[in-house]
């Protein structure tokens, strides 16, 4: 039925490095241009981890030029995913904090494996950073304003049952059924004529995407100012050190 599977593979935690973001955009573009494909299942090849989100090492201790290049790549992937003409279904087979959650929220439908460890949410505040307005918009468009307001301020990571209850995911299924469920949901979405579904998707999502498109450069400057602050760099270093020391 013209369905591709994109399996993220950037061990150990599928962090969204500049290279991953760039390759993801290229793969999506190829699929968009190949008319034999109508849908994509986005999933992970790293056991237990869908994606650890943006690569913190790309946002810490680097040059301004690097931050700008990285942020443009983050914007680009979000725009491509959010406005894709393809049906995108996230088969979430692991934990998905922050950028990992955002990636799934850009999809048309989310199937999450029923494993209490597989938390998802926008936990930026717990790192001492702030989810940008377009991350916030994506969450609001999925779960509504009040749930998003509370989840964003508290940096909540929802276990599967809670994620389902608040509407962050559409279905929670046993782990070994995530892929087959994504495929049967895909069949339902592909039963709708492409042009009608695509125009409707655009109607729902373009106003949100346009807000970023209209101020992409300003958004990058905003990010640069924010991420270069000593206090923010310090928060990120402390958080990364904590992650690294967990093992030791
Ligand atoms: C005034 C208002 C202004 C507003 C302006 C706004 C402007 C923008 C502001 C900036 C916004 C930036 C937005 C960011 C969104 C993000 O996505 S930030 C990333 C958030 N991610 C996380 O919090 C997840 C962190 N990771 C984990 O919790 C765990 O690693 C895991 C649960 C995913 C997996 O656990 P486990 O299997 O036990 O592995 P670990 O031992 O923890 O990790 C292994 C290895 O990977 C490294 N690592 C983990 N996550 C990341 C990451 N996101 N980036 C880079 N590296 C990561 C970890 O350090 C370990 O490394 P070592 O092997 O020890 O070297």
TrEMBL record:
Q: What is its main location?
A: mitochondrion
Top-rank lineage group of the source organism: Eukaryota
Ordered alphabetically, the record's keywords are: Acetylation, Fatty acid metabolism, Isomerase, Lipid metabolism, Mitochondrion, Transit peptide
Matches recorded under InterPro entries: ClpP/crotonase-like_dom_sf, Enoyl-CoA_hyd/isom_CS, Enoyl-CoA_hydra/iso
Which residue ranges traverse the bilayer? Answer: none
Write down the SUPFAM superfamilies for this protein, in alphabetical order: ClpP/crotonase
**Gene3D superfamilies reported in the protein's UniProt record:** 2-enoyl-CoA Hydratase, Chain A, domain 1, 6.10.250.170
Annotated GO biological processes are: fatty acid beta-oxidation
The record ties this protein, via CDD domains, to: crotonase-like
Q: Which GO terms describe its cellular component?
A: mitochondrial matrix
Q: Name one GO molecular function term.
A: delta(3)-delta(2)-enoyl-CoA isomerase activity
Give the pathway.
Answer: Lipid metabolism; fatty acid beta-oxidation
* Quaternary structure and partners: Homotrimer.
Q: Spell out the family assignment given in the record's similarity comment.
A: Belongs to the enoyl-CoA hydratase/isomerase family.
Q: What is the official name of this protein in its record?
A: Enoyl-CoA delta isomerase 1, mitochondrial
Biological classification of the source: Eukaryota, Metazoa, Chordata, Craniata, Vertebrata
Gene behind this protein: ECI1
């Amino acid at each position: 039925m013209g369905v591709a599977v994109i399996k993220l593979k950037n061990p150990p935690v599928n962090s969204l490095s500049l290279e991953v973001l760039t390759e993801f955009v290229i793969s999506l573009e190829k699929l968009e241009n190949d008319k034999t494909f109508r849908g994509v299942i986005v999933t992970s090849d790293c056991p237990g981890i869908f994606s650890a989100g943006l690569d913190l090492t790309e946002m810490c201790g680097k040059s301004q030029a690097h931050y700008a290049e990285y942020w443009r790549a983050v914007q680009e992937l979000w725009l491509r995913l959010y406005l894709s003409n393809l049906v995108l279904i996230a088969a979430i087979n692991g934990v998905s904090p922050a950028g990992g959650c955002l990636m799934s929220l850009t999809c048309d439908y989310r199937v999450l494996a029923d494993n209490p460890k597989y938390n998802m949410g926008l936990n930026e505040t717990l790192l001492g950073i702030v989810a940008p307005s377009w991350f916030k918009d994506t969450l609001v468009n999925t779960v509504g304003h009040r749930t998003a307001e509370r989840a964003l301020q508290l940096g909540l990571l929802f276990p599967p049952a809670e994620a389902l209850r608040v509407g962050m995911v559409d279905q929670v299924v046993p782990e070994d059924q995530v892929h087959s469920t994504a495929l049967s949901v895909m069949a339902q979405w592909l039963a709708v004529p492409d042009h009608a579904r695509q125009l409707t998707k655009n109607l729902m999502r373009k106003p949100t995407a346009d807000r970023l498109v209209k101020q992409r450069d300003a958004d990058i400057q905003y990010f640069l100012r924010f991420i270069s602050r000593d206090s923010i760099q310090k928060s990120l270093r402390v958080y990364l050190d904590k992650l690294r020391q967990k093992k030791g």
